[in-house]
Prior knowledge:
Helix content: 40-55%
Region (Disordered): 215-251
Catalytic activity: S-ubiquitinyl-[E2 ubiquitin-conjugating enzyme]-L-cysteine + [acceptor protein]-L-lysine = [E2 ubiquitin-conjugating enzyme]-L-cysteine + N(6)-ubiquitinyl-[acceptor protein]-L-lysine
GO molecular function: ubiquitin protein ligase activity; zinc ion binding
Function: E3 ubiquitin-protein ligase which is a component of the N-end rule pathway. Recognizes and binds to proteins bearing specific N-terminal residues that are destabilizing according to the N-end rule, leading to their ubiquitination and subsequent degradation.
Order of helices and strands: HEEHEEEEHHHHHHEHHHHH
Number of strands: 7
EC number: 2.3.2.27
Number of helices: 13
Amino acid sequence: MAANVGEEEATVSLVDVLEEDEELENEASAVLGGSDSEKCSYPEGYVKRQALYACNTCTPKGGEPAGICLACSYKCHEGHDLFELYTKRNFRCDCGNDKFGEMECKLFADKEKVNSGNKYSHNFFGLYCTCDRPYPDPEDEVPDEMIQCIVCEDWFHGRHLGCVVPDCVELQEMICESCMNKTPFLWNYAAHIAVPPMTKVSPCKGEEDVKVEVENDEEERKIKNENPRSPVDEKVQDNGTSACKRKHQEEAEGSSEEGLCSGCRLREMKASGRSRTLQGAVFWLSAWRTKLCTCSDCKVIYTDAGVSFLMDEMDTVLAYENKGKSTMQAEQAGGAEGRDPLMSALNNLNRVQQLEIIHEYNDMKTELKDYLQRFAAEGKVVTPEDIRHFFEQQQSRKRRRANAGQYYCS
């Protein structure tokens, strides 16, 4: 960020804008690249992972939740108020089924009344996190990032995860505390192959959040000192683990001891005696899924808990995005020129005209770079008027060159 002296409003450079735009474009390409933008995904059944949307116009809050595929968001719900759900696993497109009343899908009308295998949440009404708020939230003034749980696939504010958010969170998978408690055997894995819980203050938390946490801790200590027999004191053990946490620990131990075969990796982890606090969301180290035990007994545990997808490395959002990127790169290499307006235009010109255009483009790029370099050297901010002035100069030079090349017969 840079600003002229005396200016209160912070500004960004043109390079910053271009880099951010490229990053957003790459992210969108990764998310959408794995989904078909022309065909409804319904015939494919419950798609392993796809980009999904919810239509607030057709299925508003108070009605039945429903999700639509990428193609239907373009063809059937153009101009509607849509919620972008990013990606979700094992979902079948609802567009045009009974949840949409008289509306029919324009791409694939022959659908069942409902998709009983779909799972829904408040996300389908544009609400997220434990705070049940929209994103972006016009009433939330605290800058914070949203992180998706890989189990329930809900999105959470970093400050509402009950733990410190580690650095490079985009490279890690997260399971929220609620989902950890529903699958207590995962706490045993968390003690060995997850990011260790941190105690420092998270950068994403606002000062007010930190202040409240400190005040709450001091208040709890005050209650304990003044009233040794208070519920707070009875709840807390000598090692600081609450009765609720102890219950989760017992469940985790029980799930790891009952019915496990010899040589089970989960049993070995439990036998090591290593443990961690059963509190807050858990961030997992890279490639952690490859370290999960896949013996026959553990597979039953995953299935019973509804998390058998954890054994599939291709289930991850990263794998989906990489597949989308690879697909788009292959299309570009194999014939994307026909879809690129610039390349299509060049293909319709002869060789001399193509060279002239390329020469003009390179000249313009060089002149624009030199023009902007002067601003950088002087520490000035580039304004829209400056850019407009540059292209006006370009047009003026072009007209002068064109006029100089005209010849008239007397």
